[in-house]
Design a protein that fits this description.
seven-stranded parallel β-sheet; 16 helices
């Protein structure tokens, strides 16, 4: 089987890094097209031996990209096209149809109740989404929560398949020596209490709440923000205004998994943390929470379908926090007062092993490649009345 994955961009983000990890585990010959922004994940994919093409799309309305993409699909003789993220789903599904590929699958990575990929949901976005959705064979939801949202939006339930995001457990396993080494590199004392925040530095992640909470915590507490984004300068100003600028560390974008480079990666940074705080009020899955659980960290979160879709005993130290800075300050102070735990990996992290997710996705591919049954017809040749 030959498959083409089409994604809006390949900067460091959850969907982008999930695609790279998934391709390592799919028993399929895969190429990737990025519509724009061939960032660090593109380099990582190429290092993995995946062919990556940058379509160099000029913007959302660059309609000239459509025939270019259709020609690329036709030349590649792909059996299946798999699209990721809103713009790629719209252009990719249509281009696949123009190229004669009927087996089209799309993954919905980021549909929330009120926004998708940072854009507010309205009737226009919904109508365009549903028009594109009908051009594919199925839509993959990364959690049952997202599947329910898709169904409420108007996507028929039989067209929805749940394939949770997956993680590679072993790199995240807690390593006390790595913890010491990373803290020394970051200039954090070994006895400091380190609160981690992981994700794009965007308004929806509400990392400003963690900065305001930090101002209410003892001086030995540090906030480690892992990720890049347009909100970094605003967050630095918030830290300065709260009097905690010297206690907030920004790492910028880092690889999601070890890639052989000299810099720090996400698993190494989770070893340096004592707790993960995830104050985003609306998530499609909550990958950062699952990765933190794989590192044995306690988690305090506002929204995480990955945890909420499982029984409470699957992640006993993942606790939902309702409220703003005061609520987070109290919750984090409680974790600090309890002292370090055993860093054991809960069942929730093992449940989302990437090999299980890859096997589920292969089932979706098999179904998409099965010819659709013809509509029932009247014995005399007419349609049933």
């Amino acid at each position: 089987m030959r498959a083409l994955h089409i994604i809006t961009g390949l900067g460091v983000g959850g969907a982008e890094q999930q695609l790279r990890l998934m391709l390592r585990h799919l028993p399929v010959e895969c190429d990737v097209v990025t519509l724009t922004n061939p960032g660090p994940v593109a380099a990582g994919l190429r290092a993995d031996g995946v062919r990556v093409t940058d379509l160099a799309m000029g913007g959302n309305r660059d309609l000239a990209a459509l025939p270019r993409l259709a020609r690329l699909i036709r030349r590649g003789r792909y059996d299946l096209v798999h699209t990721h993220l809103y713009r790629a789903c719209l252009y990719g599904r249509l281009a696949a149809r123009l190229a004669g590929v009927r087996a089209v699958v799309a993954t919905e990575h980021s549909l929330g109740d009120s926004q998708m990929e940072g854009r507010p949901l309205n009737s226009g976005v919904r109508a365009l989404y549903l028009a594109g959705e009908r051009m594919g064979r199925s839509t993959v939801a990364v959690s049952p929560t997202v599947a329910a949202r898709l169904n409420r939006w108007g996507v028929p339930e039989p067209r929805i398949a749940v394939v949770p995001n997956g993680i590679d457990l072993e790199p995240f396993r807690f390593d006390p020596e790595r913890r010491k080494r990373v803290r020394a590199q970051l200039g954090i004392t070994q006895n400091a209490f380190v609160i981690g925040g992981i994700g794009r530095l965007a308004p929806g992640k509400r990392f400003d709440i963690l900065i305001e909470a930090l101002a209410q915590l003892p001086p030995d507490c540090r906030l480690l923000l892992v990720g890049g984004g347009a909100e970094e300068s605003a967050l630095r100003r918030t830290a300065d205004g709260a009097g905690v600028a010297g206690r907030v560390l920004f790492t910028g974008e880092v690889p999601g998994l070890p890639d052989g480079s000299a810099g720090l990666d996400l698993p190494a940074l989770t070893s340096a943390m004592d707790v993960l705080a995830a104050p985003s009020p609306e998530e499609a899955f909550g990958l950062a929470v699952v990765e933190a659980l794989a590192a044995g960290l306690p988690v305090r979160y506002a929204s995480c379908p990955a945890v909420e879709d499982l029984p409470p005993e699957a992640a006993p130290d993942a606790v939902r926090v309702r409220g703003g800075a005061d609520a987070y300050a109290a919750a984090l102070a409680g974790v600090s007062a309890a002292g370090p735990g055993p860093r054991a990996v809960p069942e929730a992290a093992r449940h989302y092993c990437i090999t299980r997710s890859a096997a589920r996705l292969m089932d979706v591919y098999a179904a998409a490649l099965t010819p659709a049954l013809p509509s029932p017809r009247h014995p005399h040749g007419g349609s049933p009345s």
